[in-house]
Amino acid sequence: MPANLPPQYFEAEKRFRSARGAEEKIMALEEMLAIMPKHKGTDHLKADLRRKIAKLTDESERRVGAKRASMLVEKEGAAQVVIIGLPNAGKSQLVASITNALPEVAEYPFTTHTVTPGMMEFENIKIQLIDTPPLSEQPAEWWLRHIIIRADALLLVVDLSNDPLAQLENITTQLGSMRIVIGNLKTNEEPDIILSRKKALIIGNKVDLEATAGSYIALRNKYGRQLPVAAISAKQGNGLEELRYEIYKMLDIIRVYTKAPGQKPELNDPIVLDKGSTLADAAAEVHKDFRAKLRYARIWGSGKHDGVMAKRDHILQDGDIIELHQSK
Ligand SMILES: Nc1nc2c(ncn2[C@@H]2O[C@H](COP(=O)(O)OP(=O)(O)OP(=O)(O)O)[C@@H](O)[C@H]2O)c(=O)[nH]1
Ligand SMILES: [Mg+2]
Prior knowledge:
about 325 residues; Ubiquitin-like (UB roll)
């Protein structure tokens, strides 16, 4: 048992033991995972929790039929971003317009019943976006909470022609009841246990409709200091190129490029890392054994360095080119 697990971990563990049914158990395990501190000593325990979650998910799928098996989406690409919002906000239209996927779009609410992943291209990387069923008065299904908790970030889509401020309140309240909060956004009722704190981007959709400029400004005034806010028309295409960049920026990721000595860098195939990652983290991404073997690296990039030698704890910047050297 790794040292310094916080007390909330043991509370979640208690909930796991007393949970009835696979879904409740999965939620408790997800909580334990979310609470666990990020350091090396917790790797085994994390793997163990993930195994338990996978097993329970399997069981629960076998019990409720094949439909839900398709609900849990494997991560692909540089990051997984889940799109949520109220009925008819234009979530499916956004996925249809900005990714290679084609979920159904329709005038009536509650069109979408399943999840549809699609890949969005941004420069030389791909980011996975996931269309979901709308949030509604009913408590969200366990698999939807599961998908939201596992996401790297969220897109909160509101319809600018239909009281977007109220929609956003509704979304954050519903997230709160799932024990999910957005960044450092202040809400009326902070949940007692926070399972997950998510990066998010607010999207005001349908800017092509009349008289939506005012509600976009109102949205920015209220949330703009705390979260990025974008205005788009998913249907007409306005603002979609900027949105790709905003999504990338929100994720707080960087791209670094590897090169072999005496050769050109692989500029089409970046390693994607969290901002603040070190050379050792980059080495681990290349190969899991490489972290331990890394001795030093040479770095080119952003005009600041020019093949200089750097140590393993050197913090990387977006666009850096690295040449990794291991000990013999
Ligand atoms: N004018 C305009 N209409 C849009 C836009 N985006 C979506 N719509 C329309 O809004 C309606 C709902 O779009 P969907 O993409 O199905 O909305 P949704 O959020 O996926 O809806 P649910 O699946 O019910 O949650 C459709 O009639 C779309 O054509 C937009 O940018 N402008
Ligand atoms: Mg939909």
